[in-house]
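note to self — DONT lose this again. spent like an hour looking for the file last time. sequence + predicted structure for the chain T wanted, 186 res
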Amino acid sequence: MDTRTRALDLARHYLQTLGFNGFSFQTVADALGIRKASLHYYFASKEDLGMALIQDYRTHYENWARKNASLPALEKLELLFVMFNKIATDEHKICPVGVLTADFNSLSKPLKKKILEFHLGQRAWLIRTFKEGIEQKTLRKDLDIEATAELFLSSIQGGLLMARLRNDPKVFKDLCKNLLKNISAP
């Protein structure tokens, strides 16, 4: 694995366990066993590293969505929860969107813009998936689609935080089951 990839992996771990403000450029360099100046070869600054992280998460999410695009809506939602449950069961990490939102007021404008774009992309995917589910008659036809997307996004973020707080990933899993139960067609 090359140094840039290793740096991104370490930064991803620190981001999801400590928050963006919980680690420094030096922390990553030290963990790699290189000088901070050497890390600048790959990333001009911690902000540049943050931008690369967000892009990496976004690419991963978009690839996941494309891979699952032909599945029925309910199955896509179940797989979404599986993906986020992996976060909850991996050292009580939390979603990068949630982490960066918690640090939002201390982020630069470009980082704020990038994380908002990522969030809005997830929201748009949920809205499309809910529409598909209504058309497939697997989701309740009376859903307020946009409000339900907000509910899902908020619940996912909050559920990951509660799983971390209680040291119990089952909290997240139970939340997901209830979300699906509440929107599924009778």
